[in-house]
Design a protein that fits this description.
six-stranded antiparallel sheet, mainly beta, five-stranded antiparallel sheet
């Protein structure tokens, strides 16, 4: 499965915690920023903001993989495509094909934010930066 690590930085204070199926208590206690995570979005209650028309443009996605499987992650912290444990396995998340029923894995702040993502230099680690009024949260997505 993909690994997700969230790190917080504000006013010179920083911390990190592994995210994997649940929100860790120390992730929730960052000053003024709470991070939430949801698997397989409930119909009509997705956390990730949906663009007009319901589909993210393909250029908004980053690809993470481990030579056996791959996932597509958009710039607001949502894994919208994942076949696991192999490329030819059935999809676990297919929100890229059907935003309402396809399912996704969303990790993002609960407050208003602006976000962007990039690959860390010379790696296949995708870093998504969420900028909130209270500080920044970085989400690292990768596969081992």
């Amino acid at each position: 499965m993909p690994s997700r690590i969230a790190a917080y930085q504000s006013s010179g204070v920083s911390a990190a915690a592994q995210v994997g199926g649940r929100v860790l208590p120390d992730l929730q206690t960052y000053p003024g920023i709470k991070v939430r995570e949801v698997f397989l979005r409930e119909r009509g209650r997705g956390l990730a903001m949906q663009p007009e028309g319901g589909f993210w443009p393909i250029e908004d996605y980053g690809l993470i993989g481990n030579r056996h499987a791959a996932a597509l992650v958009n710039s607001v912290g949502s894994i919208n495509w994942l076949c696991w444990p192999r490329f030819d396995s059935p999809s676990i998340f297919a929100g890229i094909l059907d935003p309402e029923r396809g399912g996704n894995w969303v990790t993002q702040p609960t407050c208003d934010f602006k976000s962007r993502h990039r690959y860390l230099k010379d790696t296949n680690i995708l870093e998504t930066i969420f900028e909130c009024p209270q500080g920044k949260v970085a989400l690292l997505d990768f596969m081992e």
